Amino acid sequence: MKKLNEINMIRAIMCILVVVTHSLTKYVINVDLNPVGEAEYVQMLRLALLCATPIFILLSETLIAKNYASGTPKGFFTKRIKFILVPYILVGVVLSYIRSDNTLESFLANAQQIVLYGQWHGFFILVIFQFYVLHWLLGRFMAKINPILPLLITFVISFLHSYGYFHVDQYREFTNMNYPLWFRTHILFWLFYFTAGFYIGQYYETILSFLMKRLWIPVLTTILAFGSVLYVYQGMGFARAASERYDIMLYAVSVFLLLMAVFRKYNFYNETLMLISNFSFFIYLSHLIILPYFVKLTLDFGENIIVFNVVLTFLTIASSVGGAFLFYQNRLTRLFTGRINYLEKPRQAKEKQTANDPSYSLR
Fold first, then answer.
1. What is the pLDDT of residues 228-287, one digit of tens each?
2. Mind listing the pLDDT tens digit for each residue in 133-169?
3. DSSP class of residue 31?
4. Which helix (H) or strand (E) element contains residue 87?
5. Exposed/middle/buried for 205, CB within 10 Å: 0-12, 13-18, 19+?
6. What does pTM read for this prediction?
7. First-to-last CA distance in the chain?
8. Sign of the CA dihedral with 275 first, then 279, 280, and 286 last
């Protein structure tokens, strides 16, 4: 079985769930729902899917901590700027143009909000880069201390920040006035995920070995954690579908640990999921540019919630994968996608074959 197969499977599933989440949003906007029955179930499903982006962010730090627990290697930031930050900027520029009214002033204003401030669905890249910096600054220190205190402290900080932002007007106004970027990129929302990801990565095999023998633990914590999400939704009336919600933190970590243990224990592997995993970064960046254009076409299949979301999700992911494949054929457009390992070997083999072709020099 391929190395870290469970990580690839989780990455792919979270990528699909992010697209499904936004597909559900389009469904709610375009289809009249029964406010008593169907709308309630759709909202609970949307809440259940909110773990996808946090898990994707959590997963990034887990991999870094597993591979570089004691410090970052030479060229660490250079590679990530080239393969992650550059695509973020380029796709952000494309979105800025789409949202502009065909004037330079409008385009520059949109580019400032989107690329510089992170006010779009690609905001998670700015969060991940903050994780890189924290890992570089604190990784060696964190690797030497007991995980319990850092986990507790960062959980309290992230919980209070998120709760304060969504429920305390004065705190929200203070944060918006003093934080220069889009509020969702604020590191305090995600600090617990950084710490959790770091220690999951550092003790990766130990944690997996423990959970595979006691699978009931992550199952129970996932159920209880989602129960708290439903309580906040139904008991407190907090219905906002935001991945930085305070009640999602324990739920997201529980789902991540559960999937890790299940996929490793049962050696689950799927070629389609592996393909999506390889293209997941570009799917994340591009899907909300593509998805709205397929809504009208998808409605032609009917307003059944399952059919609508399956068709819209399929069309969106297929288009993102196809676009990435075409972009990867050219050195310039390849900058939009970042590095895609699935396409690297065929590309390198093609370049080697071309270089060895005696007729190539005559063209």
1. 999 999 888 888 889 999 999 999 999 999 999 999 999 999 999 999 999 999 999 999
2. 999 999 999 999 999 999 999 999 999 999 999 999 9
3. S
4. helix 86-99
5. exposed
6. 0.91
7. 44
8. negative
